[in-house]
Amino acid sequence: MRKHSATIILRWGLAFTFFYAAIASLVNPDNWIGYMPAFLLSIFPAGFLLTAFSIYEIALAAILFWGKWLRLSSLLSVATLAGITVFTLGIFDVTFRDVGLTFAALALWELVKKEKGGAI
After folding, report:
1. What is the Cα–Cα distance from 118 to 70, expressed in whole angstroms?
2. CA–CA separation, 9 vs 25, rounded Å?
3. How far is residue 68 from each of residues 62, 71, 96, 110, measured CA to CA in Å?
4. What is the pLDDT of residues 52-88, one digit of tens each?
5. CA dist., res. 48 & res. 33, Å (int)
6. What is the mean pLDDT of the chain?
7. Mean pLDDT, range 26-37, rounded to an integer
8. Model's pTM, two decimal places?
9. For a FRET experiment, which of 6, 12, 87, 105 has its CA 20 to 30 Å from that of 67?
């Protein structure tokens, strides 16, 4: 498989994941609030926090689908998924998925980190 094909597959897979999670949390917020870190919920209202994070995820998904700024979007994907993994370690039913997605984002970062013309 060529590097370009692998990059597209990883981009679109990650973008779909962020987009799906964002829409699902907007449609059924009660199903997602339990994944938010308690310290953030003590600072911000739950509805605001979920909506803000969903908007961030939709923006990140759009940038990944678009294919520009790949160094920035892949690095944000790694950071976002690593953060999600750390804060959901006690929820073993989802940890395996989050670890795999974090490594997929890291693989995308490795593929694009030396490309010219991208942010970061």
Report:
1. 6
2. 24
3. 10, 9, 29, 16
4. 999 999 999 999 999 989 999 999 999 999 999 998 8
5. 11
6. 92
7. 94
8. 0.89
9. 87
